[in-house]
Amino acid sequence: MALYVQKFGGTSVGSIDRIQNVARRVAKTREQGHDVIVVVSAMSGETDRLLGLGRNLSGRPAEREMDVLVASGEQVSAALTCIALNEMGVKAISLLGHQARIETDNVFTKARITRVDDQRVRKALADGCVVVVAGFQGMDSEGNITTLGRGGSDTSAVAIAAATRADVCEIYTDVEGVFTADPNVCPSARKVDRICYEEMLELAALGAKVLQIRSVELAMKYAVPIHVRSTFSDAEGTMVTGEDEALESVVVAGVTSDKKAAKVTVRNVPDQPGVCAGIFEPLAEANVTVDMIIQNVATDGTTDLTFTVSRDDLTRMRDIADDLVKRIGASDVTIDDDVVKVSIVGLGMRSHAGVAAKMFRLLADEGINIEAISTSEIKTSCLIRAKYAELAVRVLHDGFGLGLAR
Amino acid sequence: MALYVQKFGGTSVGSIDRIQNVARRVAKTREQGHDVIVVVSAMSGETDRLLGLGRNLSGRPAEREMDVLVASGEQVSAALTCIALNEMGVKAISLLGHQARIETDNVFTKARITRVDDQRVRKALADGCVVVVAGFQGMDSEGNITTLGRGGSDTSAVAIAAATRADVCEIYTDVEGVFTADPNVCPSARKVDRICYEEMLELAALGAKVLQIRSVELAMKYAVPIHVRSTFSDAEGTMVTGEDEALESVVVAGVTSDKKAAKVTVRNVPDQPGVCAGIFEPLAEANVTVDMIIQNVATDGTTDLTFTVSRDDLTRMRDIADDLVKRIGASDVTIDDDVVKVSIVGLGMRSHAGVAAKMFRLLADEGINIEAISTSEIKTSCLIRAKYAELAVRVLHDGFGLGLAR
After folding, report:
1. pTM
2. CA-CA to B398 of 20 to 30 Å: which in B13, B183, B186, B233?
3. Mean pLDDT for each consecutive 10-residue tract of chain A (406 residues)?
4. A-side interface with B, Cβ within 8 Å?
5. Domain range list for chain B
6. What is the second-level CATH architecture of the domain A3-174?
7. Is B51 exposed, middle or buried (0-12, 13-18, 19+ CB in 10 A)?
């Protein structure tokens, strides 16, 4: 007897029929004698509907209240999933974030899980119940409802799997697994059978929408095996595991593009100690997530500083931009959201030279200009004009031979 | 400076525009220097939509999960109301049932409030916030979400008003107050300026949809003055207060009809001790609420027993009916839901003779047959064929002179 955590996304619980389908799948696992904890997202479209209601009332609605608002979406799908399970004769109980004791910090709309107290969940399992946990939500130390940011249900699932020492965390989604590139963009993209946390982390961070990045971090930290698979088929998906369990590493595991980036350039920044902190501290305070940061060598005692932020944070970025420029004595700031970040990811990069150079060459051969570069041990990213996004992904995917069997 | 509790029903928060209207009203009270606790229902139609989702999945969905499901409706409107208030520059915070510490028993779908711990609410008021509480919901001693039954938001509001010793509990609704009869049925119906708890209790119990009955009981117990008024006008509504504060009592204060009754007749019940308990104990266990009970004198050692139940409970009633008949040795049971209960209510009945007789005469003159009668100190009810409901209300209303100024 094993303990399964099974997470179902919004599309998987998007209608009454689909909820019944989810319940059948859970019931099947239960029939095989396993314990099951189910984590559900809101029915597809519901989160956007709720966000729309809030935004109709205010251009900048209070984030605490937005969390109360959207958390209702997962509450509904958790209850409905239990009702469907009961109807099939499977004992089930729903637990909301605060009931499942998913404790978070108090950063509303993008809270981080600090602790999961699994007592209540364990008790329900011991009572013979399937436990259906509302994903995406938690509770801060004062009992306020918090949410974990888009895709947060993945993180809920992995956190619960870690706390309960589940044997596997299955992430059911509307695709069959992790692909070498987005199949909609790149027809030769293939499903990957196994991938290691590090690679998945870079892919997730770069906008491969399969898993929320924090869920992968958490899975890596607690060594929770993740199985990404389709709700609509019985085929095996992609296992995300530790490096040692993954197959022989390849140079490049996947190619991805991130259309959520916006480029911010601050010009004529005085080249003196503390000026960088003077820029990025206010951004952190305003909860603006910064990704790439590029600083050129100074000329005439000033330098230009470029960084990328998520387009979701652009309103907040614009709010503080002018004040920022004034305070640090820069000349001006420009915000450009017509860019896209394409990246290649692979453990093999650590030991193979020339991978980045090959990437730049492949892009150059198509006449694509590179506006910024950032690298990590296992990925290389380039910022390019948005219109080249799909072309760049295809060129890199096929240029690195990802279409062939791995 | 006074403390107001202002409760807004589903129609009052039924759209973004209407929520803004509610926020303006709350803001106005706040500007006058008062503290305000707002209690909101779900947006109109939302509770039914949610119930529909649950019932699509199961003919008899688990009540615990139905409560989790429908409680999301008030959660949404509470958050939206806060967002609207913030947008108007009014500091506001939403509290769900469990956050506002509205403690209930564990009878899902119709829980009763056992205690309100007002610490969290008081703290928020002290912080200068308008507190927006999600109505209709609470939490049992194990932390499960419970709901208070249809119209339960009224009870939430009164319970909070009692716990916080509010100066008044304003119930905003889509009518202008309490009427002598349903104006849709009886054109000569008038708004009542003042009515006492006891009369309101009978009127509420009898289906005058203005206030949930338990809210009136609670208001009477804790002497909370209720002001029933319209969300859509500034006119004074109806004050519901203690008897001593009410105006000189009249013989009949109002006429009402209850279309939610169904008549159950158990035939040839053995006339022996314990048989009544044998019928009504299983009903209580099945959570079937019984209203009128009529037992005739026994002939040949058996008797017929008639009682009314709410049509909402008919499925549960039918489930246990056959087993009931068998166990007590009765011959059979018939369920008739083509009936309606019309009632007259008034404190004056206590001291005026002949009120019931006049009621029977007025009905008889219209050829309406009376199938069962029940009386209390301040009301007389008759069960009649459903088709006569409106006619009976008009005849009684005008026959007792209610159309004239009181």
Report:
1. 0.78
2. B233
3. 96 96 97 97 96 95 97 98 97 98 95 95 97 97 94 94 97 90 89 90 74 89 94 91 66 87 90 82 85 78 87 89 88 92 86 83 92 84 94 94 70
4. 16, 19-20, 50, 53-54, 56-58, 61-62, 64-66, 68-69, 71-73, 75-76, 78-80, 82-84, 86-87, 93-94, 96, 98-99, 120, 143-145
5. 3-174
6. 3-Layer(aba) Sandwich (3.40)
7. middle
